[in-house]
Amino acid sequence: MIAFVRGRVSAVTLSSAVLEVGGVGLELMCTPATLAGLRPGHEATLPTSMVVREDSLTLFGFTDDDEKSTFELVQTASGVGPKLAQAMLAVLSPDGIRVAIAADDVKTLTKVPGIGQKGAQRIILELKDRIGAPTGTAGAAAVAPQAPWRDQVAQGLVGLGYNAKDADKAVDAVADQAGAAPDVGALLRAALQTLSKA
């Protein structure tokens, strides 16, 4: 297994980063918060988790070991695969996930695209005794930093002549369509549609 990857950042996309290690470009699937901290041309070290499937080998990269261990632990709950685990970390910080599970907070967990009421209840039931206590002082509002796509869509709308307040409202209106790998172009079009109906 590959525990971490250290190398020069060659490229950053909306859902992944390519790190050059010994002349080989390794693609790591990452959350928006992790990607926001990477700069092409700079060195980076990311803890990784490798998911092996019959038809693919996928490397997931993380900001720190806490994010990595949370990613691996939530997958032990039935119905949670790597994509859903990554979506949980895109919406909530590791402490945010721990607080939500410890507090039986179904509402917070259902903010994650792909988790419904029953799924959230199952995750809480299966992980409550194993998730551990929050490491920081953050409470239930331990949500990951604002996703980069939100700024991109808002700036696009302002560039098209809308004021910042309307742009923010439109971004909020399409936020549930973002998912784990947001398509900024599609979200911008959706936001424009909501503004044209207003």
From TrEMBL:
- The residue range of the signal peptide is none
Specify the Helix-hairpin-helix DNA-binding motif class domain's residue ranges: 72-91, 107-126
Q: Just give the chief location class.
A: cytoplasm
Q: Where is this protein found?
A: Cytoplasm
User: So where does this one cross the membrane?
Assistant: none
Q: What are the recorded Gene Ontology BP terms?
A: DNA recombination; DNA repair
InterPro entries the record matches: DNA_helicase_Holl-junc_RuvA_I, Hlx-hairpin-Hlx_DNA-bd_motif, NA-bd_OB-fold, RuvA, RuvA_2-like, RuvA_C, RuvA_C_sf
GO cellular component terms listed in the entry, alphabetical order? cytoplasm; Holliday junction helicase complex; Holliday junction resolvase complex
**Job description of the protein:** The RuvA-RuvB-RuvC complex processes Holliday junction (HJ) DNA during genetic recombination and DNA repair, while the RuvA-RuvB complex plays an important role in the rescue of blocked DNA replication forks via replication fork reversal (RFR). RuvA specifically binds to HJ cruciform DNA, conferring on it an open structure. The RuvB hexamer acts as an ATP-dependent pump, pulling dsDNA into and through the RuvAB complex. HJ branch migration allows RuvC to scan DNA until it finds its consensus sequence, where it cleaves and resolves the cruciform DNA.
Describe the subunit structure.
Answer: Homotetramer. Forms an RuvA(8)-RuvB(12)-Holliday junction (HJ) complex. HJ DNA is sandwiched between 2 RuvA tetramers; dsDNA enters through RuvA and exits via RuvB. An RuvB hexamer assembles on each DNA strand where it exits the tetramer. Each RuvB hexamer is contacted by two RuvA subunits (via domain III) on 2 adjacent RuvB subunits; this complex drives branch migration. In the full resolvosome a probable DNA-RuvA(4)-RuvB(12)-RuvC(2) complex forms which resolves the HJ.
Q: Tell me what this protein is called.
A: Holliday junction branch migration complex subunit RuvA
Which organism is the protein's source?
A: Nocardioides thalensis
